[in-house]
Write a structure and sequence with these properties.
CATH architecture of the largest domain: 3-Layer(aba) Sandwich
Number of domains: 2
Helix content: 25-40%
Largest sheet: 12 strands, mixed
Length: 376
């Protein structure tokens, strides 16, 4: 897995050596497997939009890599035709925090923003998505912008389900799930057992991760996502990305997969990516012929129990949409995800133009919000 072997390497600025990239990811202030080379490199190889991505590095005075962020120039920002740059969050990426060495977040942000300030392709501002509002990366960004007199505005936020608890699985289940729902789940488990031999498995070292990946592709493709054309296996690009990401993640210790089988055939599968002491739920699929047994809920319960029993994990991020009807009823904690618009600096006319664009969009958005607030 060598960055230099990428077909798009000439379009990716400042790509670091894989070894130092791995080291940064392992010691990042906020773990983000989606920007780990195991997953980001396959994205750069296979996914739409990768040809325009720039990898921005931050290095300290000794030359050590302290930050890494993939960015892409955009011609539009929301409804506005104004050039900008954004952190690259493709359709298979559910967290946007750049990799930054713990304790060096301010220095890393300073270097990254300086690169964007000097880049003509960067547009008028940086639009940043997918940050933890309470995490050290967002905190360092806000503090640095205040110190530099640089505009920095939170423009959107939402909450999504998270699992973070010192309770064991049984206590968590009893505390956070209604008795009526617990009873219904027990009934479904008993009914499912009447159909055949049910096994609940977690990927182990002796298991073939590539075969589990193929099983997942087949399971997801047989359901409504396959019918709508949105399953991983429907497109050559996403299928290739998934296979490479699973293989790399298994090799680098990031992969966690669970499955429920009936008579050795999968009826539900779930993929997590792990990094540091955190985990991110990436994909879930289930056999719709078993829908009356709620296999999606059953495997999420397996996932919850496995996570809470794992002493190497402190938390799991659901990566789910806000107000998700299923996971919100099982995981009680929440993670607040935010977007920012960050002003870029420059010289001469560029500096004035960037300042005007940043201020102008803010004025327009504030006016629209004010008008909506006055409507009866």
């Amino acid at each position: 897995m060598d960055m230099a072997s990428l077909p798009l390497a000439n379009r990716v600025a400042g790509a670091p050596a894989i070894a130092e990239w791995h080291l940064l990811a392992a010691h990042a202030a906020e773990p983000n497997p989606f920007y780990h080379p195991a997953i980001l490199v396959p994205a750069l190889r296979h996914l739409e939009g990768a040809a325009d991505v720039r990898i921005i590095e931050a290095r300290n005075k000794d030359g050590a890599l302290t930050g890494l962020m993939p960015v892409v120039p955009k011609a539009h920002h929301a409804r506005y035709r104004v050039q900008n740059s954004t952190n690259w969050m493709h359709g298979q990426c559910f967290f946007g925090a750049p990799l930054m060495q713990a304790g060096a977040e301010a220095q890393a942000w300073s270097e990254i923003l300086a690169v964007l300030d000097a880049a003509g392709w960067a547009g008028h501002f940086l639009h940043f998505d997918g940050l933890d509002a309470d995490g050290p990366v967002a905190t360092a960004l806000e503090r640095l912008c205040a110190t530099q007199g640089r505009g920095c505005k939170r423009i959107a936020s939402h909450e999504r389900a998270m699992l973070r608890s010192s309770l064991d699985a049984d206590a968590y289940w009893e505390t956070h799930v209604r008795a009526k729902k617990r009873k219904e789940i027990r009934r479904l488990i008993n009914r499912l057992a009447e159909l055949g031999h049910v096994t609940h498995r977690r990927l182990a070292n002796e298991d073939d991760a590539s075969q589990w990946a193929e099983d997942f592709i087949a399971l997801e493709g047989a359901g409504w996502k396959g019918a709508e054309g949105t399953a991983l296996g429907n497109a050559r690009e996403t299928r290739a990305f998934f296979r490479d990401a699973i293989a790399n993640a298994a090799q680098d210790g990031l992969l966690d997969m669970l499955r429920i089988d009936v008579d050795a055939a999968p009826i539900a599968m779930l993929v997590n990516f792990r990094l540091g002491r955190g985990a991110f739920s990436y994909k879930i699929a289930f056999d719709e012929k078993f829908a009356r047994f709620s296999p999606g809920i059953l495997i999420e319960i397996d996932n919850m129990r496995a996570a809470l029993a794992d002493s190497s994990l402190d938390w799991s991020d659901s990566c789910a949409a806000p107000n998700h009807p299923m996971i919100d009823g099982i995981w009680a904690e929440r993670r607040r995800i935010v977007q920012y618009r960050v002003a870029l600096k420059g010289r001469g006319l560029q500096r004035l133009t960037r300042r005007a664009a940043f201020a102008g969009i803010g004025i327009v958005e504030d006016s629209i919000s004010s008008m909506k607030g006055r409507r009866p």
